[in-house]
Write a structure and sequence with these properties.
The protein is of the alpha+beta class. Helix content is about 50%, strand content about 10%. Strands 2-1-3-4 form a four-stranded mixed beta sheet, covered by helices on one side.
Length: about 130
């Protein structure tokens, strides 16, 4: 797979997100108002009617990293999910930049660091915002 493969994501995409995550909720609210919102279908993996097995995944995998599936059935996971999402929303220049050698590895590592800690960070963030 090419490092620029996320630029090939086909609209519409389905974004599988954690509706309990404060950071995800902020992103989803932004996406719901985006001028190209029709290019993204939002699926809350915490919804009682969602079953990860129906899309060939496990719930724990989907909780660990962001998942996006494009209209051709290609999966993008982790930072690549964000790249695919932003590509279909029209931020291709930003995606291209994030794919450059060196920067790509830093962003991927930063995403993995954040993803492992997002629940605790989200709880801290919500407590801080409530003050």
């Amino acid at each position: 797979m090419s490092r620029f493969s996320t630029l090939q994501a086909n609209s519409p995409v389905t974004l599988y997100h954690d509706g309990h995550c404060p950071f995800c909720r902020v992103e989803v609210a932004w996406l719901a108002k985006h001028r190209h919102k029709e290019r993204v279908t939002l699926v809350d993996i915490q919804d009682e009617n969602f079953n990860a097995a129906d899309v060939g995944r496990t719930f724990s995998d989907m909780m660990g990293l962001l998942h996006v599936r494009d209209s051709k059935g290609s999966w993008y996971i982790g930072m690549d999910a964000s790249r695919a999402l932003y590509a279909v929303l029209g931020y291709r220049w930003l995606v291209w930049l994030s794919c450059l050698p060196g920067l790509r590895e830093i962003m991927d590592a930063g995403y993995r660091f954040f993803a492992r800690r997002r629940v605790r960070l989200g709880q801290w963030w919500e407590k801080r915002a409530a003050k």
